[in-house]
Structure formats: structure tokens, C-alpha cells
Give the backbone structure.
Amino acid sequence: MNRWLRIFKHRWLDETDTARALAAEALARLEARVVVSERRQSGEIRLCVEAGLPLSYLWRGATPRQRAIAMFGKLRVWDTEANNGVLIY
């Protein structure tokens, strides 16, 4: 994809687009499913939803996977009692 088109598509979106894509009822369902899942196993689950990648990631051609890895550290998902955090990006 053209670099400028990719930048435009990602920068066009903001937090309101995230809220529109995941309505309050959808967030409540996700939260309930995370709670149920955490009861069944020892991992701690964290959800991260972004409407678009930051400009710095777009400019250097980074992938969403690279952003997810960065957010794993930034959100300190690994910093759980048993070091078994899970990020769903």
C-alpha cells in the first residue's frame, strides 16, 4: 500500500472511531468474557484497542504486530504476579 495512503487512513481515525466500533454493550460483553476466561486459567488478560497506528509507526512502515509488542511493554502486561499476562491487541 502506498505510504501516504496508509498514513492518511490511520490518521483519519481517532478515539471516537474506536468508541463507535466498540459500543458500550460490546465492551461489557468483552469484559465479561475476560473475567470468565481469567477464572479458568492463571493468566491475566488485557485488551488494547486503537483506531489507528501512531504517526511514528506509520512513517517507518511498522506493522500492527510491532505496535502490539511495544504496547505489551508500555502497558506492563508482563508485570503480573506469575509473569503470565496476555495482551489482546
Summary: The chain has a mean pLDDT of 88. The beta strands are 44-47, 85-88. The longest helix spans residues 24-40. The helical segments are 3-12, 15-21, 24-40, 55-59, 64-74.
